[in-house]
Each structure stands twice: as structure tokens, then as C-alpha cells.
Design brief:
By secondary structure, the chain is mainly alpha-helical. It has a domain at 266-480. The chain contains 21 helices and 2 strands. The radius of gyration is 23 Å and the shape is globular. The two termini are 24 Å apart. The relative contact order is 0.10.
Length: 506
């Protein structure tokens, strides 16, 4: 069999990189007064080609490339398709929501694409130093995007808070890499899995795991590493939040799966109860804080913290159950969360004059389409049957029960009931007959690209709630590939290795 060229292993990342470069070159060559809107279509085409390249990688044999630093498998393809799909929807939404005279519009689209390069690379890297580089590529792009609205005070504030706290979290992750190298002499994930149990200094191994978990849990906004989330969600543009709340978290959860199930499977007795506690804390803190919010975006920020807890419950299960459950939940959450932020974008506009729950009063009567979409996505976030949110929670809590964490599943169910209280507030406000024409005035017309973004997310949420087996099977096939190769048999001490000339003739 002919070896697979290494470039095929990173084909989606190559396409996204070239797309970002093309967008930047065209943007720099255009006169200042020319509209850059069509550059968003160029970026969307690149994201579509990256999805195609990811699916095409299924035809490749599973394996690694570039000196065993990146891997191609069903697991990586699942997350590549998910991340590129989120990026595509975010680009379509941005095309209809960014004003034509927005400053540096070409850079906005390029940053989204470059951020996707880091997110995709984060899911396929099996070398921790490459993981760190991918994490930085993704983070730097999202830091800039968070502060894109420079004319609003909350924009630079959000970017600065995100940057400062994110830098500390990344430093923790990097220190964890340094410690595991000191303990095992390697930074390759598969080799760490073989070397860590026999390391002479187990304290270094445990400390490295703890430090890496701090960095990863920050990226998924799990409590108590969630402080940045509400301010960043409120200050960043809504299309950016749609991307920020889903794609980087999907990549970070993929990394978390690799770290705990591949690199440190022998330390399950340590990381499993730790993630159990973080899941409970995230659910409870997120839901209790969301109950107090009047700002829709801050409410959704605390909601995302709670959903990180629901997802972490799946890690209580065995790999063959927990990994598919977590992957399915990531896909379901991405669909419904991008969808609801698309509705928020279209209702409040780029400058976001309508930010409070009360501002959504009567939305169903003033814009039946947007009102219906808002209620649909809120119902899915609650976890009502026939939506993706229902099966996401069902599989996650089932994995927890299968792992013996029955109390965790019960706490999750109670928190889901608590979450319904604040999700129903904007839903009931939208369904309430308006008292005055001075209230919500959403767009009279939804653009074609925004309509496509809403259609994609609504269809995905509905499909995951009615026919979830297709995505679940894809997640299960990805879980089967997350197994470290067997260690090479050790040569007995003092045994001589025969050279080719000394081996018997055939």
C-alpha cells in the first residue's frame, strides 16, 4: 500500500489557511471605499470546501502524519465537520448582520477562517506542543473578534478580559506540558499513555494533568473558570458569540477527551471525580446565575456554563459510552446555540439596542418567523423531546448512570428543571401580546444568508431530535478510534538484537 501523503492529513486546515490568505490579499488590494461584503462569500466557500475535505478524509486509512504529530480518524473527521459547519453558519449570519460600512470587514472574515484553522488542528493534534500552537491560533483570532466593535465600550473591555484570563489559562496548560515532559520524556499523547504509569515521579504526572485541565476547562467556560464568559458574551457582536460559544468549545472538548481518555486513562480514579465535581458546580452556578439575568446575552452566557456541566456528566461513563455521548451533546448544543444567537442578532441588530428580555415582548406577533425560531431553540435548550437538546441530555445522563454516577444524573435532571424557569421567560415574553408599538421592532426582512443560517441550525436541531442515530453512530465510530496503540515489546536486558546479516536465510 502506498503511504498517504502527509498533506492529506491536514487538508481541511490547508484549505482554510489558503482561504484566509486570499481574503486578506483581496481586502488589501481594494480601495478604501469599496464594499468588502463579498469577501464573506469567499470565506464561506472556503469553509464549504473544508467540510468536503474533512468528509473525503474518511477514505484515507487511519494514521498519523508529519512525524506523528497529527492524526486522521473518524474522531477527527467528526469534529472537523462540526467546526467547519459552525464557521460556515457564522459567516452566513455575519454577511446579513454586519453593516456595509463596517470597519475592517475583510479582516473580520479572515479572522474567523484563521480561528477555524486552530480549532480544527486542535482536534487532530496528537502532540502536545502542536496542541499548544493550535490553541494559540484559535485564541488570538477569537480575542480580536471579541473586541471587534471598537466604538462600543463593552467591546474592548470584553476583548481585554478574555485576553488576560485566557493568557493565564494557556500558561497553566503550557506548564502542564512541561511537567509531563519532565516526568515521561515525551509530549506525544500516545507515548504519554504508555510512559505515565511507570514514571518515577507520579506527583509530576498528577500535577501536569491538573494544570492541563485548568487550561481546557477555562476554554469550555466550566465553573469555577467561567468568570470571563458573561462579559465577553455581552461585549462581543452576536455573530461572534454564535461562533465563540460553540466552535472553540467543541475543539476544547475534543482535546479534553483526548487528554483524559487517551493520555491519562490510568488516572481515571483522579480525573473522574474531579470532572464530576466541576460538572455539578457548572450546572448549579450557571443556572442560579442565569435566573437573575435580565440581559438576554448574559443569560445565555450563564446558560452555556450550565451546558458545560451537562456535557461533563458524560465523562463519568466508560469510553465506549461517554465519548459518543459527549460528542453528540457538542453537536446538539452547537446547533441550537448558534440558532438562538442568530435570532438575537436579527432582533437586536449589529448595535444591539434591544438587549433585555422585556424587549422581546410581542416578538411572535411582530415577526412570526423570528418569534417561532426563538421559542423553538429555547425549547430545545430546555431539553423537550423531539429536539436535539433532549437526546443530548439523555445520552449524557445515561453515560453518567452507566458509570455509576447516579447522583450526578439526578443533579443534572434537577438543574434541567431549574433551567426551564429562565428559558421560559423570553419564550413567554415573545408570545405575549404587545401592549405598545414602541416595543420590539425587529427587521422587516430577513436576508437570504441569515435565512440559510437559521434554516441550517433549525434543521440540524430537529434532525438530532427525531433521527439522532446517524450522528450518534458517527460519534461512536469516532470513539472506537480513540485507543492508544499497544506499547512496543521491550527488549530483554542484555539480549542482543540480530542484524539483518545475522538472521537465518529464508
Amino acid at each position: 500500500m502506498n503511504p498517504v501523503p502527509d498533506i492529506y492529513r491536514i487538508l481541511p486546515e490547508v484549505i482554510l489557511t489558503l482561504t484566509g490568505v486570499v481574503v486578506m490579499l483581496i481586502d488589501a488590494s481594494l480601495p478604501p471605499g469599496v464594499s468588502r461584503r463579498y469577501l464573506g462569500f469567499v470565506a464561506a466557500i472556503g469553509a464549504t470546501l473544508a467540510i468536503w475535505a474533512s468528509i473525503w478524509q474518511l477514505s484515507l486509512p487511519e494514521g498519523t502524519g508529519f512525524f506523528a504529530t497529527v492524526e486522521t480518524s473518524n474522531f477527527t473527521v467528526f469534529f472537523h465537520v462540526l467546526i467547519c459547519g459552525i464557521v460556515l453558519v457564522a459567516l452566513l449570519l455575519s454577511l446579513d448582520s454586519l453593516p456595509s460600512n463596517t470597519h475592517h470587514q475583510g479582516e473580520f472574515y479572515a479572522l474567523i477562517v484563521f480561528g477555524a484553522v486552530g480549532m480544527c488542528l486542535l482536534t487532530s493534534a496528537v502532540e502536545l506542543l502542536l496542541v499548544f500552537i493550535a490553541l494559540e491560533i484559535s485564541s488570538i483570532s477569537t480575542y480580536v473578534l471579541a473586541g471587534y466593535r471598537k466604538h462600543v465600550g463593552r467591546g474592548p473591555e470584553a476583548a481585554l478580559k478574555y485576553f488576560l484570563l485566557g493568557s493565564f489559562a494557556t500558561a497553566f496548560f503550557l506548564y502542564g506540558i512541561a511537567l509531563i515532559f519532565g516526568a515521561t520524556g515525551t509530549t506525544e499523547i500516545y507515548k504519554i499513555a504508555h510512559a505515565a504509569p511507570g514514571a518515577q515521579n507520579q506527583i509530576l504526572v498528577i500535577a501536569s494533568l491538573a494544570l492541563m485541565l485548568v487550561g481546557i476547562l477555562f476554554k469550555v467556560s466550566a465553573a469555577p473558570f467561567h468568570i470571563w464568559t458573561p462579559d465577553v458574551y455581552e461585549g462581543a457582536p452576536s455573530p461572534v458569540v454564535a461562533l465563540l460559544s460553540t466552535a472553540p468549545k467543541a475543539a476544547a472538548f475534543a482535546l479534553l477527551i483526548r487528554v483524559v481518555y487517551e493520555a491519562f486513562p490510568t488516572l481515571r480514579s483522579l480525573w473522574s471525580p474531579l470532572l464530576w465535581a466541576v460538572a455539578v458546580l457548572s450546572m448549579t452556578v450557571g443556572n442560579l446565575a442565569a435566573l437573575r439575568q435580565q440581559n438576554v446575552k448574559r443569560m445565555m452566557a450563564y446558560s452555556s456554563i450550565a451546558h458545560a456541566g451537562y456535557l461533563l456528566a458524560a465523562f463519568a461513563g466508560a469510553p465506549e459510552i461517554g465519548i459518543p455521548a459527549a460528542a453528540f451533546y457538542i453537536a446538539a448544543y452547537a446547533a441550537m446555540n448558534v440558532g438562538i444567537f442568530a435570532v438575537i442578532t436579527l432582533v437586536s441588530g449589529y448595535d444591539e439596542h434591544l438587549t433585555l428580555i422585556e424587549d422581546y415582548r410581542g416578538l411572535l406577533y411582530r415577526s412570526p418567523f423570528l418569534g417561532s425560531m426563538l421559542i423553538f431553540f429555547l425549547v430545545s435548550l430546555i431539553g423537550i423531546p423531539f429536539t436535539g437538546g433532549f437526546f443530548g441530555k439523555f445520552y449524557s445522563f445515561t453515560a453518567a448512570v452507566s458509570g455509576g454516577a447516579i447522583a450526578l444524573a439526578i443533579i443534572g435532571l434537577l438543574n434541567s428543571g431549574l433551567a426551564a424557569a429562565y428559558y421560559l421567560r423570553p419564550a413567554l415574553a415573545a408570545a405575549h401580546r404587545p401592549d405598545s408599538d414602541a416595543l420590539v421592532q425587529p427587521r422587516s426582512r430577513v436576508g437570504v444568508t441569515a435565512l440559510a443560517a437559521l434554516a441550517f441550525t433549525a434543521a440540524a436541531t430537529l434532525m438530532l431530535g427525531i433521527v439522532p442515530n446517524t450522528v450518534l453512530r458517527a460519534a461512536q465510530s469516532g470513539a472506537l478510534t480513540l485507543q492508544a496503540p499497544a506499547p512496543e515489546p521491550a527488549t530483554p536486558a542484555g539480549a542482543a538484537t540480530a542484524t539483518p546479516s545475522e538472521q537465518p536465510a529464508q
